[in-house]
Amino acid sequence: MIQYLQNNSDTVLAALRQHLYLALVPVLLGFVIALPVGYLGVRFPWLYHPLVNTCGVLYSIPSLALFVFLPVVLGTKILSPLNIVVALTIYTVALLARTVADGLRSVDKLVNEAATAMGYRRLRRLVDVELPVALPVILAGLRVATVANISLVSVGALIGIGGLGQLFTRGFQLFYVEPIVVGIVLSVLLAGVADLVIVLVQRAVTPWARA
Amino acid sequence: MNLSYLLDPAHWDPSVSGSFPQLLLSHLWYVFLALLIGTVIALPIGLYIGHTGKGSFIAINAGNAGRSLPTLGLLMLMVTLLGLGLLPVLIALTVLVVPPILTSTYAGMRTLDRRVVDAAKGMGMRPWQVLTRVELPMALPVLMGGFRSAALQVVATATVAAAVGLGGLGRLLIDGLAVNDYSRVLAGAIVVAVLAVVLDLFLALVQRWVVSPGVSGRF
């Protein structure tokens, strides 16, 4: 195992770097898209159930199917990393839009009324009161989305781009266990580290939760 | 968007090998076996942990560990170690099924009102009766949620099984890609996505049927 890592450190590092990029860019994009979409589901209550159902259907599309389907829809090349980024962004939005809506709905009505009475307008109340209170729920969703994305990226190796997944396909083709094990371990470690980072960020930005 | 492969009646003839009905059937077979074995393993452990409260650490962390395991890697590792065949694929798929069912069984039993359990004990129920008549029925909605997400995950992952030479609907995706037949790839993607949605709807109906009206509030 160590022998393999020494001889192939460049390949492994390149795969790791690509994996990180392919997993985290969609998380950021998805988060930015999911915030307004989730808010719409709260601002207009009749939108909530259609939103939740649409998210459920989107999330149930198998990743391999989406990876190979997107080039047909987007007109991108099958080997373009854009396919993976767009597919994982869709999954992230499907997961997070619902969490954002649920988080905002869980804010105590009295808190909102108090903020309104203190003169907060809708947008400032959302940014200064509702979002911070909903943050623990939203970040819990972000943790799930991040970890799921990191493990999903490797499926992309079947269409030629998949970060650490390429170690799997290479090991499989050569009937060689080392790269597969290295890929699995690194992927799980990456997920663990990303999860830990979000937990630490959550602790830092919600100091009242520890009081 | 070229739907010719999907709409060609020859591909829907059940007697032709590689037709949609045949691929669908083998796909569902893998899904069924993995769910069955996974449930047989995870449910008793989840019930034990939930009932006794011992080893809750395992139940909580199983979910996270399961999510972070890359399926494709697991599958290819198993095939590399054990050779081609149904067994390595079933092992990989079962490893995916166990965590969500284990975690949701535990979560379902922990989130139910403990006073109900106390009441059941106070009425003279034996531990076994408390488990089967009170805790399990009340944990069912959460448990079914976990089962449904496990089912979706297996339907999706079973397509990956084609990459290691097995059948199932993944064949359409992998073979279509290999010969640049995008009409076939599109057909595979559509059929798998529809299967996932239909299966989830079916399980939602099963959930409505198995959850007691007293728990779901649907009188």
TrEMBL record, chain A:
The chain crosses the membrane at residues 20-39, 51-72, 78-97, 131-160, 180-201. Keywords: Membrane, Transmembrane, Transmembrane helix, Transport. It is a multi-pass membrane protein. CDD domains: TM_PBP2. It comes from the Bacteria. It is found in: Cell membrane; Membrane. It holds the Pfam family BPD_transp_1. Residues 16-201 form the ABC transmembrane type-1 domain. SUPFAM superfamilies: MetI-like. Its main location: membrane. The keyword Transmembrane applies. Belongs to the binding-protein-dependent transport system permease family. PANTHER family: GLYCINE BETAINE/L-PROLINE TRANSPORT SYSTEM PERMEASE PROTEIN PROW, OSMOPROTECTANT IMPORT PERMEASE PROTEIN OSMW. This is Glycine/betaine ABC transporter permease. It comes from Paractinoplanes deccanensis.
TrEMBL record, chain B:
Keywords: Membrane, Transmembrane, Transmembrane helix, Transport. SUPFAM superfamilies: MetI-like (SSF161098). It is a multi-pass membrane protein. It is found in: Cell membrane; Membrane. Residues 24-203 form the ABC transmembrane type-1 domain. Its main location: membrane. Signal peptide: none annotated. InterPro entries: ABC_transp_perm/SBD, MetI-like, MetI-like_sf. Belongs to the binding-protein-dependent transport system permease family. This is Glycine/betaine ABC transporter permease. It comes from Paractinoplanes deccanensis.
